[in-house]
Amino acid sequence: MGLFKPILFWWYGIQLNPQFMGIDLKFFFVRAGMMGWLIINLSVLAKSVQDGSLSQSMILYQLFCAVISDRGLELLSTTFIFSFLTMVVLYAAGCRSRSKGSSLKPHITGNLIHDFYILDYFVHEEYMTSTYLVFRGANKQKHIFKQNPKALIWGKPPKVIGGKLLASGYWGIARHSNYLGDLLLALSFSLPCGLSSPIPYFYPIYLFILLVWRERRDEARCAEKYKDIWAEYCRLVPWRIFPYLY
User: Fold this and answer.
1) Three-class DSSP category at 177
2) H or E stretch including 178?
3) Record's Pfam families (predicted)?
């Protein structure tokens, strides 16, 4: 494959920490993307306050995004393709869906921003909090296990297969529980917009396709790398992402 092979490995994440002129490219694209996301959101918030259209759904969405952009991704292991798409693809769709019709006609977007009953507000808040705990907990457990394989998981000694694979905590529920947290959290960003338009749901749909594709590649790579150990892990933890579904 010549010159194309190292470029392909870099794109798919085979190279762990690709750098250019001393700059960590994965870190740059993810962090720049997350900061830009927050700045765009705050701009939309300022416009809503200015024109008097600030709503509960807008407040919820701003809170969700502020939390995830500040604390959500420091333990996330990702590939360059994921980092690049986070900054480029999501901006193209996100800026349009969050603008409440400023770049799309109202009859296409529908009423994306609306107020809730107080019960709806707390349901959305509790759902986001729960999904954030899954998202952060799964990634944190993996990080802790890599640092100290004997560290307690949910207050108990970890179950380890072949001395290499964690099968406790979230990783005893699904083999890619970090992807489960990702998908549930992505959905929590869209739910405050209601069901009047499919546009706010671009992100969770896009992420679902991307992560299922990535999970398939992860499965093949792990089966080749760990062999019998991976087969035993699959027997103990049969669910890939969604417990009892997939």
Assistant:
1) helix
2) helix 177-190
3) ERG4_ERG24
Alpha-carbon span 23 to 17, nearest angstrom? 10
What's the pLDDT tens digit per position in 118-127?
667 677 778 8
In a domain, 159, yes or no: yes
Distance of CA 90 to the CA centre of its chain: 12
Question: What's residue 182's pLDDT?
Answer: 86
pLDDT digits (tens, 9 = 90+) for 24-81: 766 777 677 777 777 887 888 888 888 887 777 777 777 777 777 665 555 444 554 5
Q: Is 94 a domain residue?
A: yes
What total of structural domains would you count in the chain? 1
Whether residue 180 is contained in a domain is answered as yes
For residue 155, CA distances in Å to 148, 158, 190, 194 come to 14, 9, 34, 38
Q: Which residues contact 78 (CB under 8 A, 6 or more apart)?
A: 13, 26, 30
The span from the first CA to the last CA of the chain, in angstroms, equals 35
- Token pair of 134, please? 């899954």
| Triad 13, 15, 21: Cα angle to 5° | 115
Domain membership of residue 203 as a residue range: 4-236
> Which one-letter DSSP state was computed for residue 156?
B
Q: Where are the alpha helices (DSSP H) in 13-117?
A: 25-51, 56-71, 80-97, 106-109
The tokens for 104 are: 């799309």
Give the pLDDT confidence score for residue 16 in this predicted structure: 56
Residue 166 token pair: 């964690």
pLDDT for the residue 239: 94
